[in-house]
Amino acid sequence: MAWVYLFVAGILEIVWAYAMKQSHGFSRLIPSLVTLGAMIASFGLLALALRSLPLGTAYMIWTGIGALGAFAVGIAFLGEGVSASRLVAAALILAGLLLMKLTASA
């Protein structure tokens, strides 16, 4: 169950990052509230996952899901550019996440 908590926590990290962008520096109420709610839920689920997963593994995967997800959301919804070097960087993050998951002891 810890891996499910961690995955959902990572998805919520993407949600709060996107909502924070939409809040325009916390000047818009609804995106600001979504940001805070998703942050609290993400941290809470991360805390639950950390009950049984190693810190380094859980934290790397949590931030990696957020980083890759924010990268994808930026491209898909915010018109951010795609280049070969950015795609290689994202692939390297993904490779690191997969290796971390495959070698995790819990």
Provide a descriptive summary of the structure in words.
- The chain has 106 residues and is an all-alpha fold.
- It has one domain.
- It contains 4 helices and no strands.
- α1 packs antiparallel against α2, α1 packs parallel to α3 (55-78) and α3 packs antiparallel against α4 (84-103).
- The longest helix is centred in the middle third of the chain and has 24 residues, at 55-78.
- The mean pLDDT is 94.
The chain-level structural class is: mainly alpha
Give start-end ranges of low-pLDDT stretches.
Answer: none
Helix content: over 70%
Instruction: Give the SSE order as H and E letters.
Output: HHHH
What is the count of helical runs? Answer: 4
Query: What is the overall pLDDT average?
Result: 94
Radius of gyration: 15 Å
What is the number of independent domains? Answer: 1
End-to-end gap: 11 Å
Query: Strand portion, in percent?
Result: under 5%
Task: Indicate the overall shape.
Answer: flat
Number of β-strand runs: 0
**Main beta sheet: strand number and arrangement?**
none
Main location: membrane
Subcellular location: Cell membrane
Membrane topology: Multi-pass membrane protein
Keywords: Cell membrane, Membrane, Transmembrane, Transmembrane helix, Transport
